[in-house]
Amino acid sequence: MRTFTTRDKIISLSGAILLVLVWKAVSLLTGSRLLLPPPEEAFVSMIKLAFSADFAVAVFGTVIRGIMGFLISLALGMVIGVLAGLNRTVNSLVTPLLVAVRSAPVISVILLALVWFRTDFVPVFIGLLVMFPIITTNIIEGIKSVDRELVDMARSYRVKLPRIILEVYIPAIVPFITGGIASAAGIGWKAIIASEVLSQPRYGIGTRMQNAQSYLLVEEVIAWTIIAVILSYIFENMIRFIERKIVVWR
Amino acid sequence: MSFIIRRLNKSFDSLEVFKEFNIAFPENRVTCILGPSGCGKTTLLNIISGTVKPDSGEFSGLAGKRISYIYQEPRLLPWKTVIGNIEFVLKDVYPKRERKEQANRFMETVGLVEFAGFYPGQLSGGMKQRVAIARAFAYPSDILLMDEPFKSIDMELRESLVREFKNLWAADQRTVILVTHDREEALSAGHEIYILTGPPAALAERVIVTE
Ligand SMILES: Nc1ncnc2c1ncn2[C@@H]1O[C@H](COP(=O)(O)OP(=O)(O)OP(=O)(O)O)[C@@H](O)[C@H]1O
Ligand SMILES: [Mg+2]
Fold it and tell me: Which residues make up the environment of ion ligand 2, defined by Cβ < 5 Å?
């Protein structure tokens, strides 16, 4: 596994500082704080937001929708992924579904979901649709990659089937599951916020972004964006941390 | 008493690997099988271990027998430690304490006690194969199958592994079927040698090794 040295960290930090400097320079050049407010204004706005009354509920609303969409995707993905990974007929049967769901434009699914569901549930549904194919595909790949030779070894030694599943199959697909979870969470998070912008649930990051935009509070839109990025970064690190705890043999 | 296979038939698509094939393995002896590549040696071991289904055949002396198997590759679970890999095959046979004792005893015989907590990824090829040997002997099998277990191992190490195998075998003298390409190895480790031709597999020669 790749480890970050102090040197890598310093370089990444310089990259981040450079980004802020370029932002500052461009905002000075445009000279209009309506088009692109300078970084310090976005930063102040972010601090204000963080201490405002509804901040926690808005963040909590989005995070909960993300977790719900994620858990349903994971449960569905596990069942369908395991069945499809073990059985070719099931695999051929679900492939069109996975391809269709994966290639459908997110925006058209949001438009349909707006017609079908309550505003609160639309982002959950979108998160589900975006994450489910990624997780399922990863689990299918994981099962296909299970080493037949190890399974034969276990069968020769008359190891009982439940233990073969638990101690041979599952550990073999864990890295695929965590990999799927990490990429699904990143993409799902963005889709959920986008659908909140359109569905306007009572509390949500997307809702607040849309409000800020309609009052032309560009610095606040940027502040929410940075908050979304920070949260996504935290989630990704949590997933990687859990992965390292489970996959100790790598 | 011996373990006998009669009228074995097995085809892969149009390829007949076994056609009315007969063979017998004496109990508590090391029987070596030599033969050209593709004549069906691995398939025969897999049929005995139960991972390949024969088309037909009579097996006497096999029912209820426990099998352990040493492959050309170590076939260790990467997510289990050395002791975890040995215990993996013992779990359905021994309660926890006996299992640990048994695993420890055989790790000791192959000289890997200090590596009990290592993962296979942290071991050399020879050490991994030693774990596979310890696993096969720790498992209380009636028949031990070995499919060119020392093939991918260099000369010097191979000799010491063959010596280790002979010592381990001497301790409980279980029935062993050893497939090898190496006549020297067959003569050194085996009591009887079958030379096969094929496919379809046929017995060309039977050699009894006298010491
Ligand atoms: N699962 C399978 N599907 C189709 N053909 C197979 C399968 N397993 C073995 N065969 C064929 O059966 C024949 C015997 O194979 P086997 O592996 O038993 O030979 P072997 O004597 O062990 O050869 P080697 O010395 O190279 O290991 C070969 O021609 C092989 O291609
Ligand atoms: Mg072979």
Answer: B 42
CATH number of A37-249: 1.10.3720.10
Residue A81 and residue A93: Cα distance in Å, rounded? Answer: 12
Q: Which of A159, A249, A250 sits opposite B88 (nearest CB)?
A: A159
User: What is the three-state SS of A14-43?
Assistant: HHHHHHHHHHHHHHHHHCCCCCCCCHHHHH
Distance from the CA of B39 to the center of ligand 2, in angstroms? 8
Domain that holds residue B86: 75-140
Interval A25-58: pLDDT, tens: 998 888 887 788 888 988 998 898 889 888 899 9
Q: Residue B36 domain-assigned? A: yes
Query: Based on C-alpha coordinates, what's the Rg of chain A?
Result: 22
Task: Examine the domain organization and report whether B85 and B97 are in the same domain.
Answer: yes
Q: What ipTM score was computed for the predicted complex, to two decimals?
A: 0.92
From the CB of residue A128, how many other CB atoms can be counted at a distance below 10 Å?
A: 23
CA–CA gap between residue A160 and residue A198 (Å, rounded): 52
- Residue pointed to by tokens 């349909």: A112
Q: Which of A148, A149, A155, A157 to mutate to test the interface with B (most CBs of B within 10 A)?
A: A157
pTM for the model: 0.79
Write the DSSP string, A74-129.
HHHHHHHHHHHHH-HHHHHHHHHHHHHHHHS-HHHHHHHHHHHS-TTTHHHHHHHH
Q: Report how far residue A156's alpha carbon sits from residue B176's, in angstroms, rounded to the nearest whole number.
A: 15
Encode pLDDT of A72-111 as tens digits. Answer: 999 999 899 988 988 899 999 999 999 999 899 989 999 9
Query: Going by C-beta distance under 8 Å and a sequence separation of 6 or more, which residues neighbour residue A127?
Result: A65, A66, A68, A69, A70, A73, A188, A189, A191, A192, A195
pLDDT at B153 exceeding the cut of 90: no
CA closest to B141 among chain A residues: A157
Both tokens assigned to B146: 């070995």
